[in-house]
Amino acid sequence: MAKKLNSLTIGFFTLTLGINQKLIAMKTLQKFAACLLVLGFLSPSVRAQGLLKKLKDKANEVADKTIDKKADEFLNGKKKSGATSEVAGGVSVPGTSVGGTGNSGTGSSSSSVRNKGGAGLITTPPDVKENLSLAESSFKTANYGEARSALQQAILGVEMEIGQDLLKSLPETIASLPKQADKDQVTSNGWGWVGLTIHREYLKDDKQLGLTIANNSVMMSAVNLFLTNSGYAQSTGGEQKWKQTRLKGYKAVIEYDDNTGYKLTVPLGQSSMLVYEGINFANEQDLMTAASQVDIDKIKKTLGEK
Fold first, then answer.
1. Structural domains in the chain plus CATH codes
2. Which residues of the chain have pLDDT under 50?
């Protein structure tokens, strides 16, 4: 009789357990067992303790299985979070895969269609006049956030145009090395020359010349420190890795490394610099001759450096 009662009681509570109700079920089991003792179904002996232990173990087992099952259903049946960050409506956060039912980590939509190519994004400088008009109208209506953003875009547009003009002013060839048009690059963060970078490469066979016009206050500080500090003495013995020199009247620093070749840095005013990087040039004079073909005065004037 006691065994049947034990079995029926465990079965009853097994059927009534639900997910996330583990603690409530345990309290209920304890109360029910106490009632059985009061009603005389059980003797206050080891049988009562054994029943409580069995009920507790069974409750733990069923609750754990139920929770594991629901967790598996959520992760495998509904959505397993990975590279995609999905929000309401099946729309993904920019930079992740799109589609509410896409496979995890694949970046694909529910149709399993794969992108086979595209034209990419068009590099178009911001319209300066349009952004200036927007900044003015926004300022008049006290929309200062919009005015600030529009001004930044206008400055970015100006810098991109200046960068393109400087690229057009550079020689088509230097030291018989033709320009690599696909390597031309102008980058800017849109805050008054800070971070403006203009880059071009010249290449023929294994001989290459890289030319970079940059606004970088950190690099400028290091170069100016080197040029003005007498502590950086130049040695006459041993292998020379760097030294001061001049290019078209401008102070400069030239370096050499067996792996990377020659590097010539020419400061232009307070914050801009011109950097040449020559690979497989025969000697120092070979690089200096190539570097002299660039109109440094025009670059300095265009950037507004004093």
1. 2-69 (no CATH), 123-168 (no CATH), 170-230+241-306 (3.40.1000)
2. 4-5, 7-20, 36-46, 78-93, 97-105, 107-108, 193
CB 138 within 8 A of CB 147: yes
Position 177 scores a pLDDT of 96
Given this model, what pLDDT does residue 162 score?
Answer: 87
Residue with tokens 């020379």: 240
C-beta pairs of 51-57 under 8 Å, 24+ apart in sequence: 51/6, 51/9, 54/6, 54/10, 55/9, 55/10, 55/13, 55/29, 56/26, 56/29
Report the alpha-carbon distance of residue 178 to residue 200 in Å, rounded: 11
Q: Which residues pair with 265 in a beta bridge?
A: 253, 275
Which pLDDT score is estimated for 287? Answer: 96
Q: What is the pLDDT of residues 29-48, one digit of tens each?
A: 555 555 544 444 444 444 55
To the nearest 10 degrees (0 to 180), the angle between helices 22-39 and 46-72 is 160
Let me know: does 242 contact 253? Beta carbons within 8 Å.
yes
Closest by Cα among 187, 179, 177 to 213: 187
CA-CA distance, 110 to 84, in Å (whole number)?
Answer: 13
